[in-house]
């Protein structure tokens, strides 16, 4: 009021008074808003950089866990077959030297499986699906199982082309894990692998009969106990269902219902 001098009403005097009193606060508000904006943009950029770094670390950890899980599944299946074949050679060999060598090979295989389980247990989190197509398919798995002394029959019905690649890989992993468990825990059993391809779904059933012999205790102890749990997660990723339970006749059954088509753009690794 002193600067504007309202007791001397004049447009020039009042205008100059308002400018003198308003310009300072307006400039202060402008610079304060500019400072706040620069700070907010700087903080947002730093946060985005931190998030990018964390996402990169998470991607590396997930890839390491995926590779560890895949290594565990593949090597466990192969070494289990080797241990079974060494055990059969120990029983059927005609000379003591061959029997001793077969027993040493079987014991080394069991020890390798146990060490692999401990090592992968440190790295492995949630198992991830392999992006590569299965080598040899289900027929190769069945042939390997039969060659290792576990009679296995494969029954496929329907057109295999009805299943999308993700579903085909999931079915392959289910059969492989189920056969590995039979090799470890169901000595002398016979296995039937049934895969039915329909337009809307794929049904996978792996059923073994009642074991006729006692399982190899060293080989059975090498299991991580995560096989069925890992299968349930894989099946859930493709929106399917899994049942794994003993049969009334003393056998065991692993059955999965999968959708026939799952878009590859979905987050199924």
Question: What does the model show?
Answer:
The chain is an alpha+beta fold and 269 residues long. It contains six helices and five strands; from the N terminus they run αααβαββααββ. It has helices at 11-92, 96-123, 137-147, 165-185, 217-220, 227-237; strands at residues 152-157, 191-197, 201-208, 241-246, 252-259. It has a five-stranded mixed β-sheet, with helices on one face. α1 (11-92) runs antiparallel to α2, α3 (137-147) runs parallel beside α4 (165-185) and α4 (165-185) runs antiparallel to α6 (227-237). The longest helix has 82 residues, at 11-92. It is elongated, with a radius of gyration of 33 Å.
Essential attributes:
269 residues; alpha+beta; 5-stranded mixed β-sheet; 6 helices; 58% helix; disordered C terminus
Task: Write a brief caption for the model.
With 269 residues, this protein is an alpha+beta fold. Helices cover 58% and strands 13% of the residues. The longest helix is centred in the N-terminal third of the chain and has 82 residues, at 11-92.
SSE order and pairing:
Layout: H1 11-92, H2 96-123, H3 137-147, E1 152-157, H4 165-185, E2 191-197, E3 201-208, H5 217-220, H6 227-237, E4 241-246, E5 252-259
Parallel strand pairs: 1-2
Antiparallel strand pairs: 2-3, 3-5, 4-5
């Amino acid at each position: 009021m002193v600067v504007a001098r309202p007791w001397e009403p004049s447009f020039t005097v009042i205008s100059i008074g308002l400018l003198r009193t308003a310009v300072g606060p307006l400039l202060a508000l402008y610079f304060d808003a500019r400072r706040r904006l620069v700070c907010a943009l700087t903080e947002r950029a730093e946060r985005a950089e931190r998030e990018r770094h964390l996402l990169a670390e998470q991607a590396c950890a997930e890839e390491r866990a995926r590779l560890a899980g895949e290594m565990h599944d593949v090597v466990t299946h192969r070494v289990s077959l080797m241990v079974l074949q060494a055990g059969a050679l120990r029983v059927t060999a005609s000379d003591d030297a061959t029997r001793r060598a077969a027993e040493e090979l079987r014991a080394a295989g069991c020890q390798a499986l146990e060490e692999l389980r401990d090592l992968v247990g440190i790295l492995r989190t949630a198992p991830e699906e392999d992006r590569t197509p299965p080598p040899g398919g289900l027929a190769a798995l069945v042939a390997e199982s039969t060659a290792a002394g576990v009679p296995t029959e494969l029954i496929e019905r329907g057109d295999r082309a009805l299943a999308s690649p993700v579903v085909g890989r999931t079915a392959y992993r289910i059969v492989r894990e189920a056969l590995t468990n039979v090799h470890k825990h169901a000595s002398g059993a016979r296995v039937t692998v049934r895969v039915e391809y329909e337009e809307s779904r794929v049904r996978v059933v792996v059923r073994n009969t009642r074991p006729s012999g006692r399982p190899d205790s060293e080989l059975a102890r090498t299991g991580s106990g995560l096989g069925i749990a890992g299968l349930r997660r894989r099946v859930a990723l493709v929106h399917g269902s899994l049942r794994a339970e003993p049969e009334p006749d003393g056998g065991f059954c692993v059955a999965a219902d999968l959708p026939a088509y799952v878009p590859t753009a979905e987050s199924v690794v």
